[in-house]
Specification:
single chain; about 200 residues; alpha+beta; 4-stranded antiparallel beta sheet; 8 strands; about 35% helix
């Protein structure tokens, strides 16, 4: 059976459950799986980039952001900002004005220290995995890793009381698949490159 569409996935889940009484809950199982994905997966294919304009102490996070990966200020050269907790940022800079050197994320906002009158922030962040639907293009995770969607949806079915000898195997298979996804993401990001920059060698 193909796993190319939302309908394919729903059919596969129903077949694997082998319990017609749960067929009306398949959509819920998929949504629970997606909630778990957004909690635990941080993969290169969910990275997004945006430019934020700051004219004061804070600027709103992108609405689809799960977390900031890195942030820098346009300049010559570009300056990467240090990530701090909000209390540490307040203690270190205390609202002083100037070019930002650090940021903190709190309450759906990015706080900057020092506080700029104007700054252009180049931001790389992890974006939410979009929910599957019958009317939209499948997201990157389902397109490349439909097995993870299927396994996570089946594990979520346990919350409705579906409980048999397959569940420990399914949980183990899901954990293994998520681990493989993480390793594949690291390989895609870095390949054979060193994880740290080498010191320049003078001639």
């Amino acid at each position: 059976m193909a796993l190319d569409t939302y309908s394919d996935l729903s059919t596969a889940i129903t077949d694997w459950l082998d319990d017609s009484s749960l067929s009306t809950s398949v959509d819920t199982f998929i949504r629970l799986a997606e909630a778990r994905f957004n909690r635990v997966i941080r993969h290169v294919d969910m990275e997004a980039f945006t430019t934020l304009s700051a004219t004061g102490e804070s600027v709103a996070l992108p609405t689809d952001a799960l977390g900031i990966r890195t942030m820098w200020i346009d300049g010559s050269p570009d300056d990467q900002l240090e990530e701090l907790s909000l209390p540490a940022l307040k203690q270190l800079y205390g609202g002083a004005a100037g070019t930002p050197l650090a940021y903190a994320v709190a309450g759906g906002n990015i706080f900057l220290g020092p506080v700029p009158s104007s700054a252009t922030l180049q931001t790389a962040y992890y974006s939410k995995i979009a929910n599957l639907s019958s009317s939209d293009t499948p997201n990157w995770l389902f397109t490349s890793h439909p097995d993870i969607y299927l396994l996570a949806s089946l594990v979520a079915a346990e919350l409705r009381g579906w409980n048999d000898s397959r569940l420990p195997l399914l949980k183990s298979a899901l954990d293994e698949a998520l681990g493989e996804l993480e390793r594949a993401g690291q390989n895609k990001r870095y390949g054979g490159a060193p994880l740290q920059a080498r010191a320049a060698v003078s001639a």
